[in-house]
Specification:
alpha+beta, 8-stranded antiparallel β-sheet, 3-stranded antiparallel β-sheet, 11 strands
Length: about 325
């Protein structure tokens, strides 16, 4: 008897299903890589909080070398020049309007009438910035006993995370307020006229985590260990709630140093938010927290990198 070999001329059902699954994965990757208005807001907010300070500090170095900045630690006093220095350090699309208001406007109603800001520039990923140039110049945050040299200078900038042509273009939805400091620092902010939304206490779109930077051991101060701290309150610990990593910007600042929030927002206090025991270097509780005896250890905070959306959540990315 002769055996007849049958060669497949097509794909079986399993292979078809696998091919469709593979195409779905590739499509999800392309959607994630190229901007989509359907994905979560947090990657764009994180990008501003994490990457803008790095870009601005690099711009300050170049600005100083070019003779446009008075020091290597701050943006120029002239806000038009400061706006231009920042824009030149970024990948922008369209025209940059630092000396005049652009064609695209952001307008909202306040108790005192309408406020209107022209777009200064837009990034290649669609993020648009409004209000960098203020007629009154930089605002300042200082303690009563501080001199002008010790003050923090800032401007509150409205940021449309998906650009003027997309989304609802509403404050608290796709437009948020960020505080840009002359020294390159960037933080969430809030609009006094629109206190219905405060980004400094929003841990969903503006999540932060608290870090401890300490020496690896007593004999090796040069090698550092960075540890994510548990931000739970004593009551939350007693209630046996799970490890808490994400907190709001205000909580992150206050749990690190209860006096530090006034360096960002003058006259604001921590309103009962206590410092973490692991960051309370004045307590000298070395028995519980040995690093408190290390004068090189310190607590800091950083924005939390967001997870992806859709299919990427399945894989934990």
């Amino acid at each position: 008897m002769k055996l007849k070999h049958c060669f497949k001329s097509g794909m079986i059902l399993g292979e078809v299903i696998f091919a469709f699954f593979l195409c779905g994965i590739l499509l999800a990757i392309s959607i994630y890589m190229f901007k989509s208005t359907d994905i979560t807001k947090t990657p764009y907010i994180y990008s501003i909080l994490k990457n803008m300070p790095v870009a601005i500090r690099a711009a300050i170095d170049d600005c100083y070398d070019d003779g446009l900045c008075e020091t290597k630690t701050e943006l120029p006093q002239d806000m038009v020049t400061a706006c231009q220095v920042i824009a030149d350090s970024l990948v922008t699309v369209g025209e940059v309007h630092c000396s005049e208001k652009g064609n695209d406007k952001y307008q909202y109603t306040t108790d005192n009438g309408f406020e209107t800001y022209g777009m200064n520039f837009q990034l290649a990923n669609g993020i648009a910035f409004y209000g960098f140039v203020q007629p009154h110049g930089w605002f300042s945050v200082r303690d009563l006993d501080q001199s002008d040299d010790d003050a923090n200078y800032y401007v509150d900038v409205y940021v449309d995370i998906n650009g003027p042509k997309n989304g609802n273009n509403e404050y608290g939805d796709d437009i948020f307020l960020f505080r840009f400091f002359r020294n390159g620092m960037v933080s969430p902010s809030y609009d006094i006229e629109l206190r219905n939304y405060d980004a400094t206490v929003d841990e969903e779109y503006f999540p932060y985590r608290i870090l401890l930077n300490k020496a690896a051991n007593e004999n090796n101060r040069e090698q550092r260990v960075i540890e994510v701290l548990d931000a739970r309150t004593n009551q939350q610990i007693q209630d046996d709630l799970p490890f808490l990593e994400k907190v709001s910007f205000k909580e992150a600042v206050c749990k690190t140093n209860t006096k530090a929030f006034q360096r960002y927002f003058q006259g604001e206090d921590c309103n009962g938010i206590d410092i973490l025991p692991a960051c309370d270097f004045d307590s000298h509780d070395i028995a519980t927290y040995p690093h408190l005896g290390d004068n090189t250890a310190y607590c800091t905070f950083e924005p939390v990198k967001p997870r992806g959306s859709g299919v990427f959540k399945i894989f934990g990315i």
